[in-house]
Amino acid sequence: LYHSPKVEAAYQRWAAAAERLPQVRSLPDPRVNFGFFLDEVETRTGAQQARVGVSQSFPWPGLLSDREDAAAMAARAAWRQFEAARLEVTKRVVESLHELAYLDAAIRITGENLELLSSFEEIVRARYRVGSGPELIRVQVELGQLEDRLAQLRAMRPTYVADLNAALNRPTDAPVAEFAELPGRVASIDGPALAKIARRSNPVLLALDERIEEQRINSEVARKQGLPDFTV
Predict the structure, then answer these.
(1) CA quadruple 19, 21, 25, 28: dihedral sign
(2) Nearest Cα to 81, choosing from 167, 210, 200?
(3) Which of 34, 79, 90, 132 has the most neighbouring CB atoms within 10 Å?
């Protein structure tokens, strides 16, 4: 997770969205006005050559708080998307890990079967010398098939190693030791129960909920933006 560019990008998007909160809730910048008269203007207090003014605008009541709420919903959605990126990377690593572990187990079992069949071939070959022929040919054929199967499995391992290294954001040729047996993970919950869990905790779905609420608030922001501001 610390080495994944996808996770880092999602985190930075959330950080940028969070930084917008103090910006959207702040008042517009105050304005300073300066005027200079080419001809002096006579006023009740005397001649006037220049004037300086300061003004501050105030949006319609509730507009700033609504903007802040919308930005907060956007930041929360960005955080959910960051969580989704973390889960996606974890899922890819775990899948690649189990695929490679399965391949290593298949190579190991095939090698053991090849050793057993080789020892059985010696027994059949001894029986062949005393008159038993067809069994030896059948054993040799199976032995050749196992050798081909073992060679195929071993040729597949570099591809699986490259997939795992890519998921870990490492060089594709980084060495990976042979895996021992991994603990089994079997879901004991039925489909409808899993769907309820996903609806309650899946970050992609939760991010959509946050986006819906953000757009609802933005519609109120758009309505209030059409109302007059107040300037002092």
Answers:
(1) positive
(2) 210
(3) 79
Longest dimension (CA), the chain: 137
- Containing 23, the helix (H) or strand (E) segment is helix 21-24
Do residues 78 and 17 make contact, with C-beta atoms less than 8 angstroms apart?
yes
* Distance linking the first and last C-alpha atoms of the chain: 52
Q: Among residues 180, 153, 175, which one has the least CA distance to residue 164?
A: 175
Q: How far apart are CA 96 and CA 112, in angstroms?
A: 24
Predicted confidence (pLDDT) per residue in 102-141, tens digit = 999 999 999 988 888 887 777 777 666 655 567 777 777 8
- Which helix (H) or strand (E) segment holds residue 87: the answer is helix 63-128
Q: What is the pTM of this model?
A: 0.73
Instruction: Report the distance separating Cα 115 and Cα 135, nearest Å.
Output: 18
Residue corresponding to tokens 């187990």: 105
Cβ(44)–Cβ(129) under 8 Å? no
Summarize pLDDT for 138-187 with one digit per residue, the tens: 777 888 888 899 899 999 999 999 998 998 888 988 998 888 777 667 77
210 HSE (CA, 13 A, CB side): 19
**Residue 164: which of 107, 101, 109, 105 has the closest Cα?**
101
Using alpha carbons only, what angle is made at residue 18 by residues 24 and 91, rounded to the nearest 5 degrees?
145
- Tell me which residue has tokens 């969070």: 18
